[in-house]
Amino acid sequence: MYTIVKLFLIYLFFLIKFCIGLAAEEQSSLFKAKQGALAQEQGRFDLAIRLYSEALEDQLLSNDYRGIFYTDRGVIYASLGYSKHALKDFNNAVKFFPEYAAAYNNRGVLLLSLNYIDESIKDFNRAAILVPDYVSALNNRAAALAAKGELVLAIADYTAAIKLSPHEVAPLAGRANVKITQRRPYAAMRDLNRALLSHPKFALGYRLRSQVHTHLNNYTQATNDINRAIAIAPMDPNSYLVRGLVYLQARKLNAAIKDFDKAIELRPKFSEAYLERGHANVLLENFEEAKRDLTRSLSLSRKSGKAFAYLALMYKKKGNPELGLQEINKAMRLNSTNATILWAKGEIEEAMFEFDAAASSFKQALDINPRLKSAQSGLIRIGIPFEDQNLTLTRQTFGPWRISHMHENYIAQHKDFPKLLVPLEMVSDGQPKILSWEKKDELKDIGILMFKAGQIGTRDEKIGIDYAALIDLRSQKVIDLVPQRIGSSYTKWIWQDHRVLIIAVDGINTEHSFISRTNFSPM
Q: How far is CA 45 from CA 11, 37, 235, 416, in A?
């Protein structure tokens, strides 16, 4: 009996010693990984990679920690542009720790950056299944869906992320960007205003809001916003590109070229900056510089139909529209539904005295982008007066309101307030329908106009969307434009004294205060 006890105690001693040694080894690996994370924060990436690599050499390291360390090292490799090394690390991470959502999320980000969109969505799906409230995975999946053209699904994911983290700016900016693509500038502005309220130094927010102001022809506000973006992030080439485009729209060509120069200085392979600098040089008739820029843009992105269109315009200005026609044919093969390309096609046809064809091209360009002033001018030049489309839908009236179609947008107009234009932005094809018009008893000049904004969903299931415009009749302005209903979920309006709190179904809560009002304006 004594011998058995003695042997057991000896076994227990060695077992404890082994476990202590194992714990020490793991602690050593953890220490190296922590030092690696610190080195990464300090920008000492080579040291960080070495420390993570040393931690991973520990043969006694648990699989969970191994998966985490592979993920962390993969993130560093990805940030340095070593895509193959990063992908190998992420693959190892999910192999050793298949329940680690961050590994799938980071691998998805890498795959998306490499344009493997479907594969990235699979990874984001897996991350979201493992952690349903994983805001980063939802935001990244939304970006992938947007890149794939699945805009409705992208907005759904962005909205879910916003509801989980209302003050995080990335989902707000992402959703705003999708709405810009959908030509819903007021809805985009709402998201960007909310993001900038939370983070006043959010450079991307100012850049995107500048694009919205440009779309609305608010060039002063657009310039102010993009100047703020540049002041916050002076090394971002995208902001100089956007400001250059604002100047280009305003025909401040030399200022535009200066910004395109800066964008290229910061990103020497910036295809779009070369493209737009080439465009500006065509307008200034700097033909050698224009051809050099447009050729460079094509060498960086062969899919740019606009570069061929700008080359066509250059040949037209040089008095050789036949060569321009060759370039337009190349552009049309790449993208026959681009408004700029169709306008340039009309310019070439006009120069070749094919006026009927030119008129058709200008009209097609305006069907796609009714705000394209160059196409409007083209029609006027060949003797076809351009009529600003403002078609009243006589069957769509509601009390004092009527619906008009202005450019690509629907507008509600009140018979007693001619300066008031309420944008009825649609989330799908079709026409809006006014549902109600209510004025607050205690605030006679404040009202809410409700309207149907379309449906989203699949062929099997459609979800109705209603919007509400909060209107100040005294100033004849729209105070806010908010989604009132998404399916069976409704926005809550909490009125108290001269204030309203709007708890909206899109995840954004806003509050508006009103000065003391007297009875005012007709119903």
A: 45, 9, 21, 65
